Amino acid sequence: MTTIKNGMMSLFSTISSIVYLNLLWLCFTLLGLVVFGVGPATCALLAACQRLITKRESTSFKDFANDYRYFFKASSLVQLLFYGLGSLLLVNYRICLVYFPDQLVMRALYLAMAMVLVFVYLLSLFNLVEFPSSSFGTTIKLAVFLLFRFPGKSLALALSFFGCLLVLSLKSVLPVLLGASLPLLIGYAIYHGTVVSALEKFPTLVNEG
After folding, report:
1. 113: which residues sit within 8 A by CB, 6+ positions away?
2. Distance CA 25, CA 198 (A)
3. C-alpha of 199 from chain center
4. Per-residue buried b or exposed e for 132-166, using 16+ beta carbons within 10 Å of the residue's own CB
5. Of 6, 66, 94, 177, which residue is most buried, by most CB within 10 angstroms?
6. Number of structural domains, the chain?
7. Is the residue at 68 inside a domain?
8. pTM recorded for the entire structure
9. More confident residue, 176 or 185
């Protein structure tokens, strides 16, 4: 009976932490007017997930705010890169639609490229948190490497992430409570295992400092 009670208490504590982190993420994303806030807020949330998974530690408002400030510059650089790439992809897609309006294969190809771009962006944010001292180039190259060197785990990460978003979208209140924190918590658990496997096979993959 005591074991069940402790398990229930632990479950409720974890759920409350996830909800709390999601509300922090929403507040700090809005603080940066969404466009400039989503990157550092996501990195701060990932840092909280890292503490929760690897150290079983909770994150206070002060911790979240400090992480937000710490990752603001690096995540903004990553955002600018992918905003630029995304804009180029969109412009190119619109031009192709003018000349090939009925090509379903072309639309599917651009959709696939857009999904890859979003996924590499997310992996880059994961890398910023996991290896905060790495250079900008290493962060991006590692994201691309993980995507194509470990396609199975990358697919599992993508399906888990988008599966969570799909389930959460069934109820209007769930995205507000768990929309970012739950997918990123599950995603970080898969990502962390992938990075550990990668570094075991390629110990010189990441050079921090």
Report:
1. 89
2. 29
3. 20
4. eebeeebbbbbbebbbebbeebbeebbeebeebbe
5. 177
6. 1
7. yes
8. 0.92
9. 185
> Which pair of structure tokens corresponds to residue 35?
């466009």
Structure tokens at 161: 């992430």
Q: Is residue 209 part of a domain?
A: no
What is the span of the domain harbouring residue 54?
A: 2-201
Neighbours of 171 (CB within 10 A): 11
Tokens found for residue 208: 């921090």
HEC states along the chain?
CHHHHHHHHHHHHHHHHHHHHHHHHHHHHHHCCCCCCHHHHHHHHHHHHHHHHHHCCCCCHHHHHHHHHHHHHHHHHHHHHHHHHHHHHHHHHHHHHHHCCCCHHHHHHHHHHHHHHHHHHHHHHHHHHHCCCCCHHHHHHHHHHHHHHCHHHHHHHHHHHHHHHHHHCCCCCHHHHHCCHHHHHHHHHHHHHHHHHHHHHCCCCCCCC
The separation between the first and the last C-alpha atoms of the chain, rounded to the nearest angstrom, is 50
* Alpha-carbon span 68 to 42, nearest angstrom: 8
Region 129-140: mean pLDDT is: 93
Q: Please give the structure tokens belonging to residue 74.
A: 């690096």
Tokens of residue 97, six digits: 């639609």
Q: Within a domain: residue 207?
A: no
Alpha-carbon Rg for the chain, nearest whole angstrom, is 18
